[in-house]
Specification:
The protein is of the alpha+beta class and about 280 residues long. The chain is built from 9 helices and 10 strands.
């Protein structure tokens, strides 16, 4: 396994390699490695950082402190949304049934008491009352059985919605169409969230990297390869701007001021098989 001593080494190692080692999902790794602090909760972020420290035996306290600073500076944006508590509608029917049964029991007991004191005619009336009470219980039982049957029938006839699995993003899939995003003498990239970026001068092989939320100025006089932890960026130029909104790692070329988005595969081919 390649030795990693810093967070930048993990970024250079690549999402796929880190995923295979840590089993952290690729989409979460893209947020962590791209330092998209505004897109991930504090508990989750600290948990993933702890896993990376354990698996690679490195100290990432600097990243933790950086996240905490961002968290404190953007408390309103990072505040958790109030949860919606769903309360089941109370079913009052069983309470009424219990109360009705109790009332019927009282009537039956009262009927037996009256039978010992009244004549035959009143006793018959009490018996009729007791019979009517029993019929009420039977009717309640029928209603409950009907309700249960209807519920069971509904449960059988309503089919569960089909769950369609969403495939994981293919890092080698080509970006189509690979057209020129912008062509100008002055170019800059403005991240919407903090992001790790790397720039390679194709002619000299010189590499520049960093983590920023500030505009990244592109030297249009050079042929460059560019990689960014996420693609939620705005490409600005004198005549306007181009918006991108991609949570995944993105790759670009800048040749004579013409900037294009390319696939991971094409980036590897242009960079001699290296991810960074």
């Amino acid at each position: 396994m390649k030795q990693c001593n810093t967070f930048e080494d993990l970024q250079a190692l690549g999402i796929e390699k880190v995923h295979e080692q840590t089993h952290i999902s690729r989409d979460k790794l893209e947020l962590v490695m791209g330092k998209a602090y505004g897109e991930i909760g504090r508990v989750q972020f600290m948990g993933y950082i702890s896993i990376l420290e354990r698996e690679y035996g490195i100290d990432l306290n600097g990243i933790k402190e950086e996240y905490k600073a961002f968290y404190n500076d953007n408390a309103d944006m990072m505040a958790p949304k109030p949860s919606v508590i769903l309360q089941a509608t109370s079913n009052s029917k069983p309470k009424w049934v219990v109360a009705g049964i109790g009332l019927i029991a009282l009537l039956i007991v009262g009927g037996y008491i009256l039978q010992g004191k009244l004549t035959t005619a009143p006793q018959e009336d009490v018996m009729h009352l007791t019979t009517a009470a029993v019929e009420v219980v039977d009717q309640n039982s029928d209603v409950n059985v009907t309700d249960r049957n209807e519920t069971n029938t509904s449960a059988v006839t309503v089919a569960a919605p089909e769950v369609v699995p969403v495939p994981a993003p293919d890092m080698n899939k080509s970006v189509k169409p690979a057209k020129t995003l912008v062509s100008a003498k002055e170019l800059s990239i403005l991240p919407k969230y903090k992001v790790w970026y790397g720039i390679i001068d194709v002619a000299s092989g010189e590499k520049t990297q960093g983590v920023t939320k500030d505009p990244i100025t592109i030297d249009t006089a050079k042929n460059l390869l560019i990689v960014m932890g996420h693609g939620r960026v705005e490409i600005t130029y004198p005549d306007g701007k181009t918006q991108l909104d991609d949570r995944n790692t993105v790759y670009f070329t800048s040749e004579q001021g013409a900037m294009k988005q390319i696939s991971h595969k094409e980036f590897l081919e242009r960079n001699g098989g290296k991810g960074w």
